[in-house]
Amino acid sequence: MKELTRDHVRELRQNMTDAEKHLWYFLRGKRLNGHKFR
What we know:
Elements: H1 3-14, H2 18-28
């Protein structure tokens, strides 16, 4: 992966919107009817 792309991905991950944080809270904790996402 190109360094510029990797840096951009890292920046997006660190600066998530409230909606993205809320979504990942449910996806990571298997809180979506017991389904697991990675």
